[in-house]
């Protein structure tokens, strides 16, 4: 992969309107938007703005989406880095990438750094990884990340958001005060929240006007926001394949079947004995 995919500065057009449900997480993270927009309100009272926040939740629950929405709401640049990409890297590259990322972010403050899959870098030392030899590299990357977190001032205008499915795997050093000392939890959506997510992802589709969001939500217990987005797109693809003019209920039912089949396949790969 090119380095361009590793560190990108993007403007985010997403806002909280694009994030359905997740009300508690939004309430907590809205404070970050206020810090970025108007830091002096906080600093003049002597408040220390948090540097690092971990978004914790199952795959597809909207962690990346929420981080982008924070950048969009605050209208600040968004730098991203994915933990898993470090696993593939040459020795010494990870640490220098981290250094480079923080240097660039500080120049553009106020801004957000988003580290997806932080557990790939910040896994508790000694808990082992899939690749031996990748371990030293991961550790030097983690150490660099800790150094950077300590090195920038509390009120420098850089806020680091990180995402993980498994907060319990994270190295305790990452979670110390002044580093990633705040956690925001994202849960799988309940029925009402699934309705809201369907509403967001139905908006761009041309349906026959009879698609019932309540029914779709009742057919999709345990589905994530990403699964629902996937269903809506699949339904449109199915309708297009049939050369239909509108996306209708049966296209959604077919799409749900298809996504369920995909999920089953995925879980078989993960747990072949079950
Ligand atoms: P992963 O852990 O797999 O990286 P994630 O939690 O970061 O997943 P996202 O990448 O943010 O999940 O979600 C994928 C897509 O699913 C989003 O781009 C969006 O289209 C849809 N989605 C997920 N959650 C929501 C939500 N709460 N509201 C609207 N759309 C959602």
TrEMBL record:
The lineage of its organism: Bacteria, Pseudomonadati, Bacteroidota, Sphingobacteriia, Sphingobacteriales. Belongs to the AAA ATPase family. Homohexamer. It comes from the Bacteria. This is ATP-dependent zinc metalloprotease FtsH. It is found in: Cell membrane; Membrane. ATP binds at residues 57-64. Acts as a processive, ATP-dependent zinc metallopeptidase for both cytoplasmic and membrane proteins. Plays a role in the quality control of integral membrane proteins. The gene is hflB. The chain holds residues 178 to 451 of 650 of the full protein. Residues 49-190 form the AAA+ ATPase domain. It comes from Pedobacter cryophilus.
């Amino acid at each position: 992969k090119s380095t361009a995919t590793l560190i990108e500065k993007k403007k985010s057009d997403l806002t909280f309107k694009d994030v359905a449900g997740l009300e508690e997480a939004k309430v907590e993270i809205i404070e970050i938007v206020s810090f970025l927009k108007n830091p002096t309100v906080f600093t003049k009272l002597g408040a220390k703005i948090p540097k690092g926040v971990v978004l914790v939740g199952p795959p597809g629950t909207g962690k990346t989406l929420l981080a982008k929405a924070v950048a969009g709401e605050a209208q600040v640049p968004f730098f991203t880095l994915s933990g898993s990409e470090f696993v593939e890297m040459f020795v010494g590259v990870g640490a220098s990438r981290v250094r480079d990322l923080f240097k660039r972010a500080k120049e553009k403050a106020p801004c957000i750094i988003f580290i997806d899959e932080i557990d790939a870098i910040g896994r508790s030392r000694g808990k082992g990884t899939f690749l031996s030899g990748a371990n030293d590299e991961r550790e030097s990357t983690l150490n660099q990340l800790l150094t950077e977190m300590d090195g920038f001032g509390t009120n420098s205008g850089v806020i680091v958001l990180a995402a993980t499915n498994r907060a319990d795997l994270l190295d305790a050093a990452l979670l110390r005060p002044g580093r990633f000392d705040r956690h925001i939890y994202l849960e799988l959506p309940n029925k009402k929240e699934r309705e809201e997510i369907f509403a967001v992802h139905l908006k761009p589709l041309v349906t026959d006007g009879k698609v019932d969001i309540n029914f779709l939500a009742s057919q999709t217990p345990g589905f994530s926001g990403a699964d629902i987005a996937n269903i809506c797109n699949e339904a449109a693809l199915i309708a297009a394949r049939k050369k239909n003019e509108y996306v209708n209920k049966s296209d959604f039912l077919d799409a749900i079947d298809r996504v369920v089949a995909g999920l089953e396949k995925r879980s078989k790969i993960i747990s072949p004995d079950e």
